[in-house]
Structures are given as C-alpha cells and as structure tokens.
C-alpha cells in the first residue's frame, strides 16, 4: 500500500508540475497580450510583434531566441518587456530615430549615469565631440600609435620568450596596459593589475546579455558593483592628485606626461559658459571609455590571431598590404558590440506591428553580422569579401551598409578609428616578426556572453625565423 501511494504521488508530481509550468507560461503571455489589447483598442494601434513573454519575471532570459516575422519579436529579458530587432532595416530604423528611442542599459550605473554612454542632448554632443576629436584626427592617432608601440613590441618579445601563451589572456593584458597609458597616464604596476581584474568583473555583468539584474550576494551584478566602487576610488584618488598639482602649480618631468592624457583633457573640458565637468562626470566618462575601448578591441585582436593561425594564405597576403580587409573581417566575426540597448519613448509603428512605449528594445547585431543573406558563408574568415562589398553597385552599397559593428546614427562608437588603429598595429607587428600555431585547432567556442575560444586559444609563439 505504501509503495502504491508513493507511486501515485510521484506520478501526480511528474504530471502536474509540467502542466502547471505550461499554464503559467501561457498565462503570462496572455496577460501581456490582454493588457496591450486594451491599449490597442483605445488608440487604434497595430498588434504586438510575434513572440512569447515566457514565465513571470524571468521571461525568456534563460532561453533567448531570435525569431518572428520581419526580424523583430516580443520577449521578456533583463526583467523588462522587450522587442528584439535582428535585421538591418529594423536596427537602422531604431539607431536613426533618436527622437523615438532613448538609451536603456540593463544596469546604467555600471557605465556611469553621467557618462557619454548615458547622457542625452547638449551634454552628450559636447563630450562625444571631444572624444571623436581626440580619437579620430590623424595627428591624434599618430601620437597614440607612437605612445603604445613600445609596449606592444615588448609584449610580443615576452610572448616569444615564453614559447606558449593563452592568446585571450595575453592580448587582454597588452590592450589594458595601452588603455591605461593613453587614458590615465599609468604604467603597468600592481595597481593596474588589480584594476584589470576589477574591469573584468564590471565587464562580466555588462556582457552577460542573458543575465537578470539581481543584486544579491554572490551574483555577477553584486560583484560588478563592488568592482565599480573600487575603480571609483582609484580614479577619485588620481583626480584629487591632479587637482592638487594644478592648484599648487607643481609639476615634474615624471608627471608632465599626465597633462596630455585623456583624464587631464576631460578635466579641462568646458562648455560654452566656461563650466567644467564635475568630478562625477569625469569619473563616469573615464570608466565608460576604458570599458568601451578595452574588451572589444582585445576580443577582436584575439580573433584575428586565431583566424590567421588557421589561414596561412591570408597571413601571407598581409605582407602585401592586405591588412585593412583583415581588420574589417575580424571585427565582423568578433561582433565587438553584439547587442545595443534602447527604450521606446512613445508607441511606435514598425513593420506592421507596435513597439509599445516604455518597452526595452534590443538590437541583436550579432545575428545580422553572421546572416547568410548579407554575408555569404558568414562564419568563414574571408577578407576577400570586402573587395566585393566595397564595389560601386547599389547591391554592394546595401551590403556594406548592413555592417553595424560600431553601431550607427548619432551614437556610432566615437572610438572606432582608435580600435581599428590598434588592431592594425597588432596585426602588423605580428605578421612581420612572429609565427604562431594553435595548440588545439579544434578547440570549442563558448558563445555566452560573447564568442570566445573555450580555453582562450592557447598557442605556440616564436620569432619568425630569418629564413622565412
């Protein structure tokens, strides 16, 4: 009797729990559709995009899919009602409609509420204009190249001395050191090593596109906020040191180099009324600019090294001024900005559907850049595709316009020229003086939060033999 009772309850449990979960799944979606139906009836709006809202609160965060008519569909991600856009036309529509879509980072305070990444209007125009001038003018790029070239050369020599490296780790170190020198005037030290760890903790949460914004002990968000506070402390101390030096009029040869780095120039930036940025604005912009220029460039360079190791024919062409196409193909495959976040500022009609006011809009750029409709054999590393895409036909122009690796509209990445320059420099130094081989050419790839060789791409690395 006891055994039969246990079997009955076990059968009930195994049968009822899935049915209950299925009911909750459908009821949650029905609730959102019913709420929107009332709004639609009152305002004569088109329907919601296809899709599903998933389970309450969690939504579809744990099982993100890209589907739906017209390349946009409804979902529930990051704790918010969401429309996901995955086709070029939809992405460009959102990026170019700045009066209809505002910024919506899942956790905006991590990049800084007063940073260029979050502010709007005149403040954004002023800071972005300064950054574009600092990162894009030929003279500025030449000066930055001269500043970071010795560090790159020294790093490659040290890799050759080691014989084997983990590419993702070593490239990340080189890029972070170059960012510290250009932006903060800091040379490699135990402090910059700790800062590197804290920025990685910050980036882990920002890149966790499927993560929930839960600030509980042990969560990624909780750790990221601790890392942000530590970084704030370092930058605040450096800021105070510079302000005291300016007030006292004291300089010395070791500190003179600080006066032309990004931090000092942000401290000196004024608006039309002569007002300078507050300490908070300087700190928020420093943290966000390091975030924007660190992981994305490191990832792109790692993938360049990875693909070149598998493509000796491409590597041979680099020595024949082939580098620009390699850079473009690398950043396409690396998807250095896989998603962008916006919010609908009003009810918006697009593609026969409604994007409701207040809904989160995710631009899924990664899906677009590996879509065979726009890039034949999209997962192949093929720099020659850029010969065709740079042609003069209307189709070539359309294909090229689908390349949104640095975003688009008035918030196109302000540092895209600096990123291209750093990737080009690394490829140039590598191809002229070194050779490398993947230790595991069949290494798997982890795709969450962004594509990365599962073990970081370990490889043998040595100086190019004189006979090569």
Automatic annotation (TrEMBL):
Metabolic or biological pathway: Hormone biosynthesis; Plant hormone biosynthesis
UniProt KW Protease keyword: no
InterPro entries: Cyt_P450 (IPR001128), Cyt_P450_CS (IPR017972), Cyt_P450_E_grp-IV (IPR002403), Cyt_P450_sf (IPR036396)
One Pfam family named in its UniProt record: p450
Region Disordered, annotated ranges: 242-261
SUPFAM superfamilies per the UniProt record, alphabetical: Cytochrome P450
Binding site for heme: 413
Keyword Metal-binding in annotation: yes
Domain of life assignment: Eukaryota
Cofactor: heme
GO terms assigned for molecular function: heme binding; iron ion binding; monooxygenase activity; oxidoreductase activity, acting on paired donors, with incorporation or reduction of molecular oxygen
GO biological process, one term: pollen tube development
Transmembrane segments: none
Keyword annotations from UniProtKB, A to Z: Heme, Iron, Metal-binding, Monooxygenase, Oxidoreductase
Family: Belongs to the cytochrome P450 family.
Protein name per UniProt: Uncharacterized protein
Organism of derivation: Brachypodium distachyon
Organism lineage: Eukaryota, Viridiplantae, Streptophyta, Embryophyta, Tracheophyta
């Amino acid at each position: 009797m006891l055994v039969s009772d246990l079997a009955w309850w076990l059968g009930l449990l195994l049968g009822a729990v899935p049915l209950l979960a299925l009911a909750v799944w459908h009821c949650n979606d029905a609730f959102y559709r019913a709420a929107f139906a009332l709004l639609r009836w009152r305002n004569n709006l088109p329907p919601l995009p296809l899709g599903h809202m998933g389970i309450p609160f969690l939504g579809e965060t744990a099982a993100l899919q890209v589907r739906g008519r017209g390349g946009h569909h409804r979902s529930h991600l990051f704790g918010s009602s969401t429309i996901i856009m995955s086709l070029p036309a939809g992405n460009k529509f959102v990026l170019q409609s700045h009066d209809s879509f505002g910024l919506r980072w899942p956790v905006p305070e991590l990049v800084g509420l007063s940073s260029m990444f979050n502010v709007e209007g005149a403040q954004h125009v002023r800071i972005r204009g300064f950054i574009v001038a600092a990162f894009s003018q030929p003279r500025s790029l030449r000066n930055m190249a001269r500043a970071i070239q010795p560090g790159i050369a020294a790093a490659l020599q040290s890799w050759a001395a080691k014989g084997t490296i983990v590419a993702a780790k070593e490239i990340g170190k080189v890029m972070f050191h170059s960012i510290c020198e250009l932006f903060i005037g800091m040379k490699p030290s135990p402090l910059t090593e700790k800062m590197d760890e804290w920025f990685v903790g910050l980036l882990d949460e920002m890149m966790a596109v499927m993560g929930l914004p839960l600030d509980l002990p042990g969560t990624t968000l909780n750790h990221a906020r601790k890392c942000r506070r530590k970084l704030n402390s370092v930058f605040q101390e450096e800021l105070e040191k510079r302000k005291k030096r300016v007030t006292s009029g004291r300089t010395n040869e070791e500190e003179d180099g600080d006066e032309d780095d990004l931090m000092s120039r942000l401290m000196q930036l004024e608006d039309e009324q002569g007002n300078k940025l507050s300490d908070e604005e300087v700190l928020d912009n420093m943290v966000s600019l390091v975030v924007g220029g660190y992981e994305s460039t490191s990832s792109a360079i790692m993938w360049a090294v990875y693909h070149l190791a598998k493509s000796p024919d491409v590597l041979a062409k680099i020595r024949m001024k082939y580098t620009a196409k390699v850079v473009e193909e690398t950043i396409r495959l690396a998807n250095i900005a896989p998603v962008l976040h916006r919010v609908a500022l009003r009810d918006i009609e697009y593609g026969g559907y409604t994007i409701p006011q207040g809904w989160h809009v995710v631009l899924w750029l990664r899906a677009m850049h590996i879509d065979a409709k726009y890039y034949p054999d999209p997962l192949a590393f093929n720099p020659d595709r850029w010969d065709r895409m740079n042609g003069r036909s209307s189709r070539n122009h359309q294909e090229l316009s689908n390349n949104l690796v640095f975003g688009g509209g008035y918030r196109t990445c302000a540092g895209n020229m600096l990123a291209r320059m750093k990737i080009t420099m690394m490829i140039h130094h590598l191809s002229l003086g070194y050779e490398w081989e993947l230790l595991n050419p069949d290494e798997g790839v982890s795709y969450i939060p962004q594509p990365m060789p599962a073990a970081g791409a370990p490889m043998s690395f040595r100086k190019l033999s004189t006979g090569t």
